Write a sequence for this structure.
């Protein structure tokens, strides 16, 4: 199954429409943005979470300032890199570099977007078998889906495979 059906057509529509308009005018015209229209939903074999290793993935732009560079929030076309940090990281050690969502909720409770302590509770209750030792974070503002497929997803998959996970929980910002 393809991540993006009719990929070449989507790239052409993006490049010749939304991206061309942005480059000509410097304006983001989201009415021109080619929305994804896959006909087949991704599917896979079900798993028993109670005996599975789960990795947390967040699009909130979380990173550890003492060890990592923030995401490039100033880039008009987004940042397609990832950051990974240990699940043992305290929430007070995290910062968020992402200008495309309201930070009010996360400023009050970071578990809204990085629910590590809640997931640890689910492990203790044996709802989840175990957590991977790493969390994967990226900045969710990534309008170029081709770059997401070519850059962001392979980086995420590489970390997930190195963690030998059976499942992933994506918490979108």
């Amino acid at each position: 199954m393809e991540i993006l059906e009719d990929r070449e057509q989507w790239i052409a529509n993006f490049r010749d429409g939304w991206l061309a308009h942005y480059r000509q005018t410097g304006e983001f015209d989201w009415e021109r943005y080619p929305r994804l229209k896959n006909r087949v939903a991704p599917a896979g074999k079900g798993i028993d979470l109670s005996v599975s290793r789960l990795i947390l993935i967040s699009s909130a732009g979380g990173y550890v300032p003492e060890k990592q560079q923030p995401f490039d929030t100033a880039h008009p076309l987004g940042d397609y890199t990832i950051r990974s940090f240990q699940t043992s990281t305290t929430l007070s050690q995290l910062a968020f570099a992402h200008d495309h969502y309201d930070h009010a909720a996360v400023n009050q409770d970071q578990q809204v977007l990085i629910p590590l302590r809640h997931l640890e509770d689910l492990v203790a209750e044996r709802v989840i078998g175990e957590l991977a030792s790493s969390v994967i974070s990226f900045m969710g503002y990534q309008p170029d889906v081709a770059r997401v497929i070519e850059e962001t997803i392979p980086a995420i998959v590489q970390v997930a495979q190195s963690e030998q996970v059976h499942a992933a929980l994506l918490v979108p910002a």
Remarks:
- Residues 1-43 form one domain.
